[in-house]
Amino acid sequence: MKDNYFIDTNIFVYSFDLEDTIKREKAREIVKSALIDGRGFISIQVIQEFYNVATRKFKTPMNVLAAKEYLEKVFRQLNVYYPGFEFISTGLDISATTKYSFYDSLIISAAINSNCAVLVTEDMQHGQKIQGLTIENPFL
Length: 140
Prior knowledge:
This protein is an alpha/beta fold. It has a single domain (4-136), classed as Rossmann fold. 51% of the residues lie in helices and 16% in strands. The protein contains six helices and six strands. It has helices at residues 9-14, 21-37, 44-56, 64-73, 85-98, 102-113, and strands spanning 4-7, 40-43, 79-81, 116-120, 129-130, 133-136. It has a six-stranded mixed sheet with strand order 3-2-1-4-6-5. The radius of gyration is 14 Å and the shape is globular.
């Protein structure tokens, strides 16, 4: 279904930002919409990255049980892409042709392999199209 969208880790991180209220509210709106409309996708990588940031890099880090609760309430309710070898192969091709890092390329690959039309992220080039996927920065 091409109206699906993939949500990058930074959106979830911004939903906890205590300093940038505009980004926090926009990020929360994106997450809430994904929980309601059922079209939001993430990957295992997004879950792992969020957990790492939340428990180590937040101004007040989450403890393990608080992080687990958030994972259960939010990430478990979203569509999760589970990678196979095609995911790695596509990611390497993307990295070779775009010069994105290996890990950013894996996010793009997961979005493509999830049949998403849009990748919602702040970390990549807004408006860029890669194999039918459009990168959108929601904070512009």
